[in-house]
Amino acid sequence: MLQVKNLTITHKKDLTTLVEDLTFTLGPGDRAALIGEEGNGKSTVLRLLYDPALVEPYAEWTGEVADKGLRKGWLAQELSPEELALPAWEFCRRSPAFEEADPRALDRAARQVGLGADLFWDARPMSTLSGGERVKLCLALLMLDGPDVLLLDEPSNDLDLPTLEWLKKFLLSCQVPVLYISHDERLLEDTANVVIHLERLRRRTVSRCTVSRIGYGAYVRERTAGFERQEQTARKEREEYGAKMEKYRQIRGKVDHQQTTISRQDPHGGRMLKKKMHAVQSMGRRFLREKENMTAMPEWEEAIFAAFDPTRSALPMGKTVLRLDLPALTAGERVLAYDVRLWVTGPERIGIVGANGAGKSTLLKLAAEELLPRTDLRAAYMPQNYNELLLGDRTPVDLLAPSGRKDDVTRARTLLGSMKYKAEEMEHPAAGLSGGQRAKLLFLSMVLDGANVLVLDEPTRNFSSLSAPVIRAVLAGFPGAIISVSHDRAYLDQVCTRVLELSENGLQQL
Fold first, then answer.
1. Among candidates 419, 429, 436, 434, which has minimal Cα distance to 397?
2. Distance (Å, rounded) from C-alpha 159 to C-alpha 308?
3. 471 phi and psi angles, rounded to 5 deg
4. Bridge partners for 304 per DSSP
């Protein structure tokens, strides 16, 4: 059993309170989804619960974590540059459980996640594996270790649809407590039976933690209905209070007028008016007490907001965007697929799916290389690995306003505010931001550039389950062309006008 009591986490650099007074207990069979907007401290909570030393460089904490004797399994959201440089077999050998496992156990773990056992001994650097292959390999190593509690940071990232189905079954059958972060709303709805919601209210200055022992779908519905009831009650009380205060002001005004006009020759009338004024003032004090006890208006984090300018991002109907014909799609010396034909016209929105390792990201990178130099289009590329574009110590403001001009900086700050960046966060090095905050930054750069062709590798993978619907709605209304790879079922349904599957035989329309 994992117990957390009064956990408060503060960012060292700007003393921002990420999490305040978080308390929960997880036992066998609990599948707790840790949800919240990007940058609210979800990954920090997981790291701290696994090993406080992981957050010590940037955060300090108070509270109690009762985990003595627990064998904890942690799946990180991203591998470090050092780990990415390792050959797969050397990465695996860093796990004691791997070193102790016999061939049958290794084969069983590989089959459970849909991998060939030979990947454990692959000489390729981890950086050259597909994102899905890396996640599967890490999950297989976790399962070999037999942990008492699982802490999973985005286990659904980059998984193909069959492996997502496997992950759902794995979570539902898991007997040990699981605390996990996922931006896949359908996975959350299908698996979570506990919801831990981290929020930052009032312009991200006040933290609120909510723990609810119900499913994700029920939590969202009950929360929405509860806020609607609270808002309705609060508005009704304020209307009634306004009517009472109007009546009070009329009565007081009348008594004030009578007091100023009463004759000095009428002392009895003066005394009566004085008593009447005392009664009116008592009424006013009673109304003020009622105001203090009124139902508060509900507070929640406002949705992010950013939109493309349709006058800059529109493409003419039928415009040739891409004609990519490949006799073979290769990665190094490996042939991934034959006879790949990717033809796109404006304003299509293409979604590409396929098994992990099929070459989807490789194909998308080739498409980006053809499109980015074009002068008749304004193409933007969002890779799976954000560090390809966010290297160095540049801040979000530096990246969005490289000119440094006052107007550009002001516009960049306004857009960052629309994506719920605090002023302090706008000055943090972009490479050190959370995955979700970096995704927002790349999204904003595409908005600023006025791109009319978007090349997106897993565009919603790091947006929270609360932000993702907003991003999907923006992309569904994008007037240009989109060429994307995604395993997000909601994205494929709501955004894409055409879905293609990549296999060794090329691209086939679904």
1. 429
2. 29
3. -65, -40
4. none
